[in-house]
Amino acid sequence: MRKIYDYYTLSEDISQNREEAAKINISYITNWEKLHDSLIGTKKPEELTVCYLSGPESSNDFKELTNLGILPQNIWAFESDTQAYKQALADFEQGEYPQPRILKQNIETFFQQTPKKFDIVYIDACGSVPSVQHSLRCVFTLCWNHRLNSPGVIITNFAMPDITKNTINDYYELVSQYLFLRNIHLKILK
């Protein structure tokens, strides 16, 4: 805001834009800047709160995050599979942090039931967008329940469908049903 205001008011070009910018009360811009800074601001790595899908080797991601300066107590890991959860806990027993925050819970359920917000959400689903893992549903639940701070980051690794297998017909069916229903919905709205 300030740069645009300065550009037009300090410009030597006489134009209608300069005249309009000159009418703006500078206190409005100052108040907007204060509001922006209070909502956005910047954070140091130790101020960030991160969550990720654990998997059986949870310490790999954990070590990367702590190496970047994120505090261990600000890292949340989620694992819903009992066997993978036990392996993740065993993986940490050998490390520097013997008591990480690994929740044996579905991350979507957590997003629905707990009013905790995160600065970074890392969803390493290791699957394609249309899959039995329902990768996009996790992102939808995160957004629907407002669990991402502003500004926040969602990191995913969703892959495109593997079309080398004979599953391509399944994707055709899925996409055609979506497009068919979408077209009906659009016609109803008109």
Structure characterization notes:
This protein has 3 domains: 2-39, no CATH class; 45-156, 3-Layer(aba) Sandwich (Rossmann fold); 166-190. Helix content is 48%, strand content 13%. The chain is built from 8 helices and 5 strands; from the N terminus they run αααβαβαβαβαβα. It has a 5-stranded parallel beta sheet, with helices on both faces. Helix 1 crosses helix 2 (16-22). The longest helix is centred in the last third of the chain and has 22 residues, at 168-189. The mean pLDDT is 82.
Summary, kept brief:
This protein is of the alpha/beta class and 190 residues long. The chain has helices at 2-10, 16-22, 26-39, 58-67, 82-93, 107-113, 135-144, 168-189, and strands at 50-53, 75-78, 102-103, 118-123, 148-156.
